[in-house]
Every structure is written in C-alpha cells, then in structure tokens.
## 1
Amino acid sequence: MERTYIKEIKKGQVFIEGWVHEIRDLAKIKFVLLRDMTGIIQCIIKDEKLMKKFSDLSIESVISITGEAKQANVKSPEVSLNNIEIEVKDFEIISKAEKLPINIHDKDIETGFAKRLDYRFLDFHTKRTQAIFKIQTEIANAFREFFYNKGYMEIQPPCIISAASEGGTELFPVQYFEKKAYLAQSPQLYKQMLACSIEKTFTITPIWRAEKHNTTRHINEIRQMDIEVAFMNQEQVMKEQELAVQHIIKRVLEKCPEELKTLNVKLKVPKAIYLSYEESIKKVKGKVGEDFTPEQEKILCDQYHDSIVFTHSWPSSIKPFYIMPKDEDPNSKESCGFDSLYGGIEISSGGQRIHLPELLAKRIKAKGLNPKNFKDYIDSFRYGAPYHSGWSIGLERLTQAICNLNNIKEATMFPRDRDRLTP
Ligand code: ATP
Ligand code: MN
C-alpha cells in the first residue's frame, strides 16, 4: 500500500509512517499519537498481540502502521484531523529511539537553549522549531519569487575571495592551494560588477564574519538576501525593499497561519516609514555621526508599530567606502546609504554605490584603505558602468524579526558562533 500523509487521511484502509509522538496506556487499550510532517493522528491498538509488540516502544521511535481510518468517538482537535482516528491492524518498527537526551515535547521548553543546540537534530522534531523553519522557507521563497517575477536575474557570487570587500579585519582565512584566501564577508563587489552589466540582480548567499562578539542578533555564518540594480538610486531600491518585505510577510501570513499560532506571533503586513538619518538619530537622542545602539533601534521601531523604518542619507563616515556621497563630492559628509529596521532590529543596509573609478579610489583612501588592494574592483568600472544601488537583508535576522525570537540562533538551522562548530 502507498503511504498516506496524515493530513490527507480519509476513511478506509491506510498505510502511514512517522514518529511515535505520545503513548497513552489504558488497561485494555493503547493510544498512540503518530506524527509526520503534516500532522498528528491518534491510533488505537486493541489487539493483545499488537499491544505486546508495542509494549517497549519508546517516544520518537519511527514506525509504519497499517490500519483502518474511522470516525473518532471522542473529539480531540489537537489530535484527530477531521475527527478521524486509526484502528491499528499491524505495525512495523523502522527505528527504535533511545532515551532522549532532551525533552522535545512542546509542553516542556525548559531544556536550556544551549543544550537544545547541542542536540539540534532532535530539536528539529519539535513543533516550535519546525514552525520557525517553515516560515523561513516561505521568507526565502517569497524573496526569490518577488524579484524573479520582476525580471531580476539570480546571481551566484563566489564564496572564496582574495581580499576583503568591506575593509576591516573580520575575515576567516582559508588556505587556497599556495595562496591565502578568505571566506566572503559579503557578495558586495561581485554583485556590483554583475549589476553593471545585467542590470537587475538578486541572490541568496552564505557569508562569513569573524566577529568575536556573541550577541542575540549575530552569528558568524549568515545567509544574505541581496539585490543590486543598475539605474536605480537610494530611494528606488528602498521602495523595492518596502514592496519585497510586504510581499514576504503577505506570503507568510497566507502560508503559515498555524506556524504563527504555534509561535504566538501576531503578524501584520507592515507600512513603510522613511526618515532621514539625522531626524531619526535625534528622535532617539543619539549622537549625530554615530550608529544606532540596539536600544535606540528598538525605541525607534516602537514609535512606528508594524512598520519597516527606513533611515536614509547616513553620514559617509559611518558607511562603507563604496557608498555614493551625496553631491559626488569626495568630501561630502552625507551619503546615499541607508538602513532599515523592523521588529526592533536592523534588518538591512544598502544604498547607492560609487560607479566612478576616481571617486571610488578617493573614498577608499579617505577610509584609510589602500586603493591598490582594490585595483580590479575599481578597474571594473572603467568600461561603461551605470549608477547602481542595492541592499542586503540577513535571512536569519529577518526570520528573527518576523517570528519575534529572542535569539537569532533560533532562526539558524545549525548556528555557527564563537564557540559552536558542531553539530
Ligand atoms: P549589525 O550592525 O547588525 O551588526 P552590519 O551593519 O554589520 O550588521 P551589514 O554589513 O549591513 O551588517 O549586513 C547586511 C545585513 O546582513 C544586516 O542588516 C543583517 O540583517 C545581516 N547581518 C550582517 N551581519 C550579521 C551577523 N553577524 N549575524 C546575522 N546577521 C547579520
Ligand atoms: Mn548594516
């Protein structure tokens, strides 16, 4: 017989496969809750022989059941989809589970987060963790769908690079044959080169940052959702982001109502608010010329409920060298760079880039970097380069914001942090 997924069970003979979610023992009857990726169903064992065969079976063991799907006697919404239960005719043990090192029942989330991460493969058995990644799947897919449907091309930047793309020292070195190379800290330079020929580009790509801090919003291996577009300015790509994030959240609302309920998240399609850097830093009593602290990001978001808050036209001094100054003046204090905040945290940075080789070299110097190290990059703009803009949203960061998670590691399948390299 062919396997039926629990959600699709109709009355009659069925063959189902899954995990033993719970066992309820009564004197002359056993109730087994069987779980697969689509749901949980109550199965009843009345036959004495079968009860014996079942007697030492542990929670989370994997079994297959042949039986008859029938109208359930007692209503139990948690368990019987469409009020159906299975009378077990026979079952096979596929894999016996040993005593679990962590409690995976959702009623008990007392197990410490670090320990749950130690047993992450088992943590994926829980409804909560599955819900987070169902939502993440929708986020990534909706991002791709949105830009694909607008005629953007998906690009595949390299992940091993020869030099820093953002300046600074937050790189993981790798031995690349006889040479020293690095894991990419961003697809920045490559997506710019691509946008300057194929115009509209997007990517979802892993990046690595060797930042030593261990916060609830940083990991060391990140997936970024980026766009880079020719013939667009700061305002135009902010608008693209507004529409993309709204589309993503619409999709999550449409596809994941159950998962949002599981996570106890009340989600709304956000509005967008556009503020200049200067007015927004003043609003939170920050210092002009400095980045927002995490507390200030939260305060700013709290002033605009259910909104993506764009802060644009940042000072050049606190944006990367490749961000276009306003006025094309190399000494311009204001830039065409922006950040966006959602759910109390930064979800993206972006802006218009410098497409003029001489200006780029000047800005690299002004940042205390050596233009010689960026020769290939600068030269790539010498043969017909349009003005262009783009941004980058962290996939885990956006998942954290949408699911309202305390720690970004909850939104990372196998997080890499200062201390964790396994599993
Ligand atoms: P933050 O200020 O939050 O440390 P950033 O400004 O250093 O981030 P960007 O270079 O702007 O990061 O990267 C673009 C986006 O990628 C960020 O807005 C964020 O969503 C995500 N991101 C960057 N670094 C990390 C990280 N270490 N962990 C998780 N997400 C990150
Ligand atoms: Mn940023």
Note: The longest helix spans residues 127-149.
## 2
Amino acid sequence: MKKLFLFVVTLVMALSLFGCAPAASNPAAPAAKAKKEYKDMTLCYPQLGAESDWRTANTASIKENATKLGIKKLVFSDAQQKPENQISAVRACIQQGVDVIALPPVVEDGWDAVLTEAKNAKIPVIIVDRSVKADPSLYAAHIGSNMELEGKKSAEEMNKLLPNGGKILELSGTTGSGAAVGRAKGFREALNKNIEIVDTQTANFTRAEAIPVMKAFLNKYGTDIDGVFIHNDDMAIGAIEAMKAAGVKPGDMKIVSVDGTRGGFQAMIDGWVQADVECNPLLGPQVYELALKLMNGETIEREILTNETVFYPDKAAELLPSRQY
Ligand code: AHR
C-alpha cells in the first residue's frame, strides 16, 4: 500500500514536471494581451493637399482601404499644402488619442516639436510618401518612394534623349518637399556634363501654376531649349498647355516627367512626354498593415520603399486603360 502511494506521488510529480498535469488556473497571472485587429484601429491621415492626380489617388487609396479593411475610424484632413495646417491636424489627432498617425509631410523641415508630442503621447507615427528631416527616434518608419532614385532615372532618360548634350529647364515641385529635394538631387548627380540646366522654377506640383511658369520660361529663353525635366505629370500637363499656346510642337523639347498618371500616359500618346518615371501613390494597404503591426508591438521594417519603373510612349496606349490613377 505504502509502495503504491509512493508510486502515485512520483508519477504526479513527473507529469507536472513535463507539463502534462491538468492546468491549474492562476488568478494572479496577467491575462495574455488580446491581439489588436483592424476593427480596433483609429488611424489619423493628415493629407498634405489635393494638388495633383497623384495626390487624389493617394487619398482614394487611404479611404478605400479603410473601408475595405473595416478599420474603426479614419481621421482624414486636407492641409492645402500648408505646413502649419498639417501640424495643427497632427496635434488634433494627438488630442483625440488616435492609435497611429500616418503623415505625408508637405515639406521636410519643422517636424521635431509635433513628432515629440506624438512620441510623448505614445502614438506611433509612420512617415508616408515624402521624407522628413527629423530625429529618426521620433517616428516609427517611412513608407514611400525613393525620390532621389526617381531623379536619377529621370536624368538617365534625359541623357538618352539628348546624346549630344543641350540646354534644359526644370519645373520643380514644392520647395523644401522631400519629393522636390530628392528628385533635384538625384537628377543632378546622374545628368551628363554636356547637358546644362539653364533655369529651375517651382510650380508646387500643380497644373495651374505650371502654365505661367512655363510661359515665363518660353518668353525668357525662346524655343532655344532642348528639354524640360518636370517633377510631376500635373505640371507637365500645365507646361504643355503653355507650349501649345507658344507654338511649340510635340517633341520640339524633350520632356521627362514623373508619376505615371493617366494624364502623363495621354501626354506620351500625344507625343509630348518622352519618358514618365513612375511614382506609386497606392500606399493604403502598406500603411494599414504597418499600423496594425505597430499597434500589436510587432517588429517592423523602418524603411519600406516602393518598387517603381519607367514608362515610355511605345506602350502608353496599351497600358492606359489599365492604369489605376
Ligand atoms: O510626393 C509625391 C509627389 O507629390 C508626386 O510626384 C506629385 O504628383 C505629388 O503632388
């Protein structure tokens, strides 16, 4: 009897050692944290503006994916390309206690104070599309394009279009924006030495502003210009309007543009644009996926770059019907 008792005790001890004993509940143990889902997410997207078809597509991607994934709430605003409006929108989101802020910054500078406020409030920030010049510890990650690479690709296209060199103009995006700064830098680094940039002016990524800027360029330099590097398709469309009014014909000045919007494709079909460097605005799925990971404290990649290509006139008509923006 005593032997049997000892055997049973030993067996129970062995089973519990190997984790086979029935689980005893421990009320003092902390409950495992439930994984957050999209339905729990409130995401703040202080959009920088509505200046271009690219931007419209970016906004649509954020809004459509919010619905598709069934997130709890999207706090969306439009800063009308004004940094001060965007900073106020971020502050309002911090006060509301959103889960994640996804910020497409209009310009690179001036973010340290408000990013510090978000950090102190324990709200992670994802920088979307353009870059910021801020202490990297103030934001979680960046999702978007490599703007310098886009500028480099644009220069390589211009080099091919003007093998004997020439004089070109540059229509630049918003001054101080990561997109304009990166594209200008990459372009200059890769441009052949026999091509001279005779002038550069901003038109803030808009069609409306590109018309007078191009008109002034044509008045000043005549038509003695071999090419134009234009930082986005909307400005290209505006510039083409000014060229048409001045009697310039498609192909007289080689145009390299950026984005790959439907408007850019049409300008290639019409013979005005010779190369369109892709910049993809459809960032919604990546933004929400990363935001959810942040809410769950998962390990994330800090830099998520979009894979992009270059489009040419020969395939433009074939590809245009399937373009999403
Ligand atoms: O930051 C991306 C740029 O902003 C796009 O090239 C342009 O079209 C937009 O306005």
Note: Residues 8-25 have pLDDT under 50 and may be disordered.
